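Subject: alcohol dehydrogenase structure
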Amino acid sequence: MTFAASASETPHGWAVERPGPIGTGPLARVRRRPPDPGPGDLLLRVEACGVCRTDLHLAEGDLAPRRPSTVPGHEIVGRVVAVGEAVTSFRIGDRAGGAWLRGTCGKCRYCGAARENLCPRSSYTGWDADGGFADLALVPAAFAYPLPDDRDAASLAPLLCAGIIGYRALRRSALPEGGRLGIYGFGASAHLAAQVALAEGATVHVLTRSVRARELALDLGAASAGGAYDAPPEPLDSAVLFAPVGDLVPVALEALDRSGTLAVAGIHLSDIPSLHYERHLFQERDLRSVTSNTRQDGRDFLALAERIGIQVTVSPYPLGRADQALADLAADRVNGAAVLVPD
């Protein structure tokens, strides 16, 4: 195992101590000894960590904790300060990214069919193991992404989950070439997926309750931006639901043209109301979920983001205000993506 000198410092961070509504203070400041890299691990000094809605679901208890006192955060940009003895793909000083998918068995029928996102033994950063709401974070090298040195760390962080999951959701929506896409909710993931769709020639209609988000959507090139429950100005070929609001499922389905597809992008969704078969599903409309991502999704999206020059709208917060970042996310006060940076 090889360490840089700075890796010996005692790191600070935040952990979910008492899951519950964000107003009850589910996050607590913690101070822990530096984690020891295993043979295949990287130890990263965190330069930035995106704040994802999944982190909010974990803090508020919508996503059941898998271990006590877990440090959230799975959009990690950092510098390698220590490497395990088996690591050959990264060296000390390299910039690397840690994302949501942290491990798979590599042996099941899903892993063998390039569908490792469905591996029953998959594990996740900030849920099964401590994440990036901290000074230091441990990431398996096999699930880390090399990142460019010449980009601002805060603008890279949202790409590692918001971007990757948005990309997979877009592909799951079966958007045809030159198609009409509806996006419901317009936060971190949606504003990146919209840019991919626009770069590929789609017409994008955004439906969201946030006035600031509508303004951002139009600035990025959306053809229209309306309220979350409004009807788009034309029938949709595809739609992606990013807002964790089950009430919007029938709304989005009803907006689809014949043979259209709705992809639900979140890991958590409030209850879906009863669907009317003829109005919502008939004429071969499809309803699909999105579950995590594969590493190939990540590689494909990061290469695409670089090629099209994707713009990341960031609202930075110092690490010491992680609780405020989650509160602002819960209240829809974040424009684009919230990102934690060192104090």
